[in-house]
Here is the input.
Amino acid sequence: MDLHEECGVLGVISPKPADVAGIAYYGLYALQHRGQESSGIVINDDGVFSSYKDLGLVSEVFSADTLSGLPRGNMAVGHVRYGTTGGTNRNNCQPIEVNHQKGKMALAHNGNLSNAAVLRNALELSGAIFHTTSDTETIAYIVTRERLHTRSIEDALSAAMDTLDGAYSLVLMSSQKLICARDPYGFRPLCYGKTEEGMYVAASESCALKAVGAQFVRDLEPGEILVFGPEGITSRREHCGKKPKKLCVFEYIYFARPDSVIDGVSVHETRLQAGRILARRHPAEADIVVGVPDSGLDAALGFSMESGIPYGIGLIKNKYIGRTFISPGQSERLDQVKIKLSAIEESVRGKRVVLIDDSIVRGTTSGRIVRLLREAGAKEIHMRISSPPFLNPCYYGTDIDSRENLIACRHSVCETAEIIGADSLGYLPVEELGALTGNRGYCSACFDGEYPTPVPADTRRDRFEQKLSERKKQ
Here is the structure.
């Protein structure tokens, strides 16, 4: 698996001063799978903002001393990041904070704007100065601009949504309000719940609500703006129903945690279904079904249930290696897959193995995993993938930005199987994607090329960094 995670957003509002930083910390910890480059929390203590953010995992950024040094408050917003647009540096850590003529704002964002470059160029021509290379700052600028001539922050956000195109799930905090918003397509998930103490918690996934003791209430509708303020909760739906629903189907296949439920659909059940479909469409004569940790495990179980082939643990993941892992100097001698994964020889030796993974991007990692099982004594390896072949880049937040590096664009299924060293290979058929979600609206452009929005002219992941570099040379 060569893909990287999304981002995770979280917001909490309490009826009285509380340890909202602690609530945010544990919520972000539950969302760590969505982003491992950086994390941050901004606390609102009766209108006074305090923040801490840095590169690294949640547990690395927020030590016990750091958390104890943060004030109590009545609101907080948090973020874990994997940057699909913009580089890995401290300037790009979120939430983004803004001080403007009508107050303060902190903003956390999950997704990618498909028109970010156009919007940013227009803002720069009007005098805006950018401090980051992420498109989140573009959203912050537009919301701030609209706030200068609107009655409220939610009015400003609603006006900004007329301009924004693409994927965005937002958690925004002003001095008095916590506001959540989901783009009209609903590309990225966003939900909220309530604790016994009366706190409201919003998060990218329902698993984060469970982690902080909040009872799930519901998902935000695509296009919905939800306002938590002194007057209670207000739902604004002027942007709802304007676009067809296009939730990223890869949320179910890979991004989300198995214990999450997104738009009423269990991620775990979705992956089981993918495995069942693979067993029917690409059967294999084998002795054991093995999943690649972590997102291949549920699909492997589904394959086993449907095929009757025993499910087994054939690969163990070193859970203490995050994306911050630094390779030793002799990197050319060390296989990174062997450091992260270990084969259980007793499970696979002399056996015909069905190996289930969530995707193949370039094929490099898949080849190494197959080789790992071969070295452990596997007799045959039949690889099954719980997604269709990647044939197109994604402009909505998934780190797939070039067709030239996608193995399925250059090789047939048989050729790919030979390249990765598998005895056979089968993908989830693209026409079966609807069966995973009950045929609810979803985006599958990375598989079928049917983009819901216009394709941006500049699709480079580092396009804003390149622009800054060119200016420095002038």
Q: What stands out?
A: The chain has 18 helices and 23 strands. The two ends are 40 Å apart (CA to CA). Residues 300 and 377 are 20 Å apart (CA to CA).
